[in-house]
Design a protein that fits this description.
The chain is mainly alpha-helical and 180 residues long. Helices cover 62% and strands 4% of the residues. α2 packs antiparallel against α5.
Length: 180
């Protein structure tokens, strides 16, 4: 999405199909919904229903999908960071707490693992929609996407201090490059 303009984001690939912006509205909305549902599972009392009441579900925030592709990507990143922070301390016992996903009774672990697959599903959907409307993606985007995936996996298993050191090295290398 980075660098894509409103006109590109708003093109639907075919009648009745979602544009990239509509796909992102769904993606960000589900991010917020997943977070609310997992929070409910972690906080609910034994007499409270398994399913989060409709009035407690997050409402769409138009700001989440306002602006160009870069703005939307940054906001999704912020929502993801909020989710990660909210559940960073989830214990093994909490992972086994019951919750509902779609029409299935599952546990918190399953719900937390759905975040990643949901993002992948809609990344592919955005790419497909954009390509169907004539958008072209060069090698740089493909390389950046693969690096981002590797980085995300790294963030799950590497100490924050080590990541900060790697980031500092990259920042230093970037700063040494001549200006364009």
């Amino acid at each position: 999405l980075v660098g894509l303009t409103d006109d590109v984001l708003d093109r639907a690939p075919a009648e009745g199909e979602w544009s990239a912006r509509q796909t992102m509205a769904h993606t960000v909305g589900v991010e917020r919904s997943y977070r609310a549902n997992v929070s409910h599972a972690l906080e609910r009392g034994p007499d409270e229903p398994l399913v989060l009441a409709p009035e407690r579900r997050p409402q769409p925030d138009p700001l989440d999908i306002a602006g160009d592709g870069t703005s939307i990507a940054l906001r999704l990143g912020a929502r993801r960071a909020e989710t990660d922070e909210a559940f960073a301390g989830t214990t093994e016992d909490q992972m086994r707490l019951p919750t509902r996903w779609a029409e299935y009774d599952v546990d918190v672990r399953f719900r937390l693992h759905r975040f990643a697959s949901h993002l992948v599903e809609h990344t592919v959907q955005c790419e497909t929609a954009l390509e169907a409307t004539g958008a072209r993606f060069g090698d740089a985007r493909r390389v950046a996407r693969r690096i981002s995936v590797a980085r995300a996996m790294h963030e799950r298993i590497t100490a924050p201090e080590a990541l900060a050191g790697l980031d500092a090295e990259l920042d230093e290398a970037l700063a040494s490059l001549p200006a364009p």
